[in-house]
Amino acid sequence: MRLGIVGSGMIVNDVLPILKELDIEIVGISGTERSKQKLIELKEIFSIEKVFTDYENMLESQEIDTVYIGIPNHLHYEYSKKALLFGKNVICEKPFTLNMDQLIEIKELAEEKNLILIEAITNQYLKNYEYIKSNLKRIGDIKIIECNYSQYSSRYDAFKKGIILPAFDPQKGGGALMDINIYNIHFVVGLLGRPNRVEYVANIDNEIDTSGILIMEYETTKVVCIGAKDSTSEIRTTVQGEKGSFVVNGATNSIPSVLENILGDRKVFNINEHEHRMYSEFKEFKRIIDEKDLKSAKDRMNHSLLVMEIVDKARMI
C-alpha cells in the first residue's frame, strides 16, 4: 500500500505515527493552501515524500495506489468519489458519507473499477471486540445492550456562542449521532446485525442533535445507544445475557478493557494488540489492499451499508 493522505487535522495527526510503525509508505499529503505550513511540518516529522495543496495533483501521482481521507464529514463523499475516478483505493474515515444514496453511488463506482473502498471504523478490528463477538453465546440470550459514549465537545462552548463549526453544523454531517454515537452503532451492528426497529430521541439545539438516545429493537434484545457532545458521563458499554455480561470500560471506539462475568466467574482483560486504537484497522487495511482482498472489503462494506441504513432511519424520525 502506497498511501496519499488527505487532511492535516486531529485524526491525521493521530494516525501518522501508526502508519510509520506499520511501515506503510506515505507518498504524499494533501490539504488546502491555508494549511500548507502544517503539511510541511508533518512532511518533515513523518518523512512524507511530497506535499500537495491541489487534491487532483496528488491523485495524478502514479506512485500512490490508496488514499486515506481524514477530513470533515461532509467532504467524504466528494473526495472518495474523486479518488475512485482516478483509480485509487480509498480508506475513508467514519461516517462514510452523509446518507445511503451517496454511499451506494461510491460503492458501485468502486465495484465498477475493481477498487477497494473501506470505512475506517476502529472498533471492528480490535481484539477485545473480536473476543466479545466470538464469545457472545457464552453469556446466553442477549437481553439488553447499553452503550454510553458521552464526551463534552471542545467545540460546544463556541457553539453556544453562535459559532457553528462543522462538528455542530447540520449541513456538514455534524451532531452527536453522526459523530460520537456512530461508534456505538457499529459496535452493536457488528454483534447483532440489522434491527427490527429504530428510534432516535435527541436534544436539538439550533437544528442539530447535541446529544441523543438511539433505540434499536431486535427479536429478543433491546438496545440503547447514548451519544452526547453537550455533556459527559462515565463512558461504558454493557452487553447483558441470561448467563452473564460483558462490560466495556471505556469508549466503543477504543474498547480499552473488558469485564467478563459468566455465571459469577469474573475476569478483566485487555487483549488488544496495540495501545493505539487505529493500529489494528490499518494493519488489516494494508493486508486487504496489498492482497487485493475484495471479499473482505465487500464484507466490510456490507457492514457499513447497514450502519448507514440505521443512521438514515434515525435522522428521518
From TrEMBL:
Domain Gfo/Idh/MocA-like oxidoreductase N-terminal: residue ranges: 2-118
Source organism superkingdom: Bacteria
Molecular function terms, GO-annotated: nucleotide binding
Occurrences of domain GFO/IDH/MocA-like oxidoreductase (ranges): 138-246
One Pfam family it belongs to: GFO_IDH_MocA_C3
Protein name listed in UniProt: Gfo/Idh/MocA family oxidoreductase
